[in-house]
């Protein structure tokens, strides 16, 4: 489940009303923390760690950023339990290999970050999930799709990809 501060912000209206009030009454949402990655800031900030011709011979250490991984669990009164994103999965370093793990290093992954444990912390079970929505196919959003064994074959997966 999300850290206390983040959940407090959600409870306090961090999601704008024009987004949060379009759900039917009785809809509930939980932000699930499913681990942390670390990467060079150049992957997340335009121009981050960019060198210039005038600085090309100077030694400097690139700055790294912590990247939280989240999923959203939605209990919808009509559609049932919906999981938005799946995180990168329990076996991320082995499945994605050492090259990708070197770029996006998992620096924090504890038992409560496992998808089934995060879902159970909300009072639901993995088997309750009726739909999985994947916003895009980056490893930290969809890499754990294989993980929810209780969902495989019993949950509908929708993938939202931007128009090209």
From TrEMBL:
**What cofactor requirement does the entry state?**
Zn(2+)
Q: Which Pfam families match?
A: Lactamase_B
What are the UniProt keywords, alphabetically?
Hydrolase, Metal-binding, Zinc
Tell me the GO molecular function terms.
hydrolase activity; metal ion binding
Boundaries of every Metallo-beta-lactamase domain copy: 70-144
Q: Which family does it belong to?
A: Belongs to the metallo-beta-lactamase superfamily.
Q: What is this protein called?
A: Metallo-beta-lactamase domain-containing protein
Species this chain originates from: Elasticomyces elasticus
């Amino acid at each position: 489940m999300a850290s206390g501060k983040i959940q407090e912000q959600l409870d306090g209206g961090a999601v704008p009303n024009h987004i949060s009030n379009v759900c039917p009454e009785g809809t509930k949402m939980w932000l699930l923390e499913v681990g942390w990655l670390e990467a060079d800031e150049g992957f997340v900030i335009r121009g981050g760690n960019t060198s210039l011709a005038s600085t090309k011979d100077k030694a400097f250490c690139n700055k790294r950023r912590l990247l939280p991984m989240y999923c959203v669990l939605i209990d919808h009164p009509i559609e049932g339990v919906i999981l938005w994103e799946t995180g990168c999965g329990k076996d991320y370093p082995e499945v994605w290999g050492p090259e990708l793990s070197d770029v996006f290093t998992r620096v924090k992954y504890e038992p409560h970050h496992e998808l089934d444990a995060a879902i159970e912390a909300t009072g639901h079970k993995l088997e309750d999930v009726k739909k999985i929505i994947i916003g895009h196919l980056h490893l930290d959003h969809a890499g754990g799709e294989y993980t929810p064994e209780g969902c495989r074959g019993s949950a509908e997966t929708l993938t939202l990809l931007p128009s090209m």
